[in-house]
Specification:
By secondary structure, the chain is of the alpha/beta class. The protein is 38% helix and 13% strand. It is built from ten helices and nine strands.
Length: 306
């Protein structure tokens, strides 16, 4: 192989410079489609071993009492503080959900279902990865996700986000075959894109990788940042300002990704309040959800000429 051999790109979508696309128009002429993605997660105290990764990196083998305790704080306390702020702004949240939450945490499940929030799968547990699964095992895993959601809500599963951001080489094909309509796994764009597989096309909705409380302010067991909350607040405002300006030419998407064990700490909800007040204080913002973004884009732009 030579140094100039073609790069091996992801096989599901072509390169597409945003400056060369048709204008994207959101409902009501909005500049920015804005959605909020709380990650409601559950972790094993002693997760099953996986040779490719571990949810805890402090100790050679679980249990990692400190990390587990910090993460569990989110469901016991932090979730409810986050909920107060989201309710204040009537946010139609799209929950990146470990489906086992519905079985193990009935109070949390009831709060989300009562609000009619969109629930898309972030796997079963955030301490159990897809790495190493063959196609049949992953098909069974998807069906278990679908069954849990159907049993608790009567809804069909539309969206998927690999647990702990894990995938296999065949995940997109397996998920498409199972009827998944959208994913948020690919951080490649500020607009939706089509993810093409033999089983059909999935819409990738832009997710908040950098506008992510855990990655910016820390909390991911030494893997995240350690910036101050006022820095995160300003970062989100600056991020919005650019997308809002660019959205005058062609619609953009902004997502804020939240984790109750981070944003739900006693001193942090005020910063979420400031961000939402700033963003929603602008005209031309479509306050929406991931499934609505995916459905709108699929209907109008999936087959549009480039």
């Amino acid at each position: 192989m030579g140094l100039l051999d073609p790069v091996r790109r992801a096989p599901w979508f072509e390169y597409s410079p945003i400056v060369s696309r048709p204008r994207l128009e959101w409902p009501g002429g909005a500049r920015v489609a804005f959605w909020v993605a709380p990650n409601v997660e559950i972790y094993d105290f002693e997760p099953p071993p996986n040779p490719y990764n571990t949810a805890y990196n402090r100790v050679p083998r679980p249990p990692d009492v400190m990390s587990y305790s910090f993460l569990d704080y989110g469901n016991r306390v932090g979730f409810w503080r986050m909920l107060e702020v989201l309710d204040r702004y009537e946010i139609p949240a799209s929950i990146s959900l470990n489906m086992a939450v519905l079985d193990h945490l009935p109070e949390v499940a009831a709060a989300m279902i009562e609000r009619g929030w969109e629930l898309f799968s972030h796997g079963l547990y955030n301490s159990r990865f897809l790495y190493g699964l063959d196609r049949d095992a992953e098909r069974a895993w998807v069906e278990e996700n679908k069954e849990i959601l159907r049993r608790h809500t009567g809804r069909e599963l539309k969206g998927m986000f690999g647990p702990f951001l894990s995938q296999t080489a065949h995940s997109m094909e397996v998920w498409a075959e199972a009827g998944i309509e959208y994913v948020v796994d690919f951080f490649v764009d500020d607009q939706p894109i089509g993810v093409t597989t033999p089983g059909g096309t999935i819409v990738n909705v832009p997710y908040g990788y950098e506008t992510n409380d855990a990655l910016v302010m820390g909390g991911l067991w030494g893997r995240g940042g350690s910036y101050e909350s006022d820095y995160f607040t300003q970062l989100c405002m600056n991020h919005f300002d650019t997308l809002y300006e660019e959205g005058a030419e062609s619609g953009t998407v902004m997502c804020i990704a939240l984790h109750p064990f981070v944003i739900g700490q006693p001193w942090r909800p005020q910063y979420l309040d400031r961000i939402l007040d700033y963003v929603l204080g602008h005209d031309g913002v479509w306050l929406t959800s991931a499934d609505r973004i995916a459905g709108y884009w699929r209907e109008r732009y999936l087959d549009a000429p480039a």
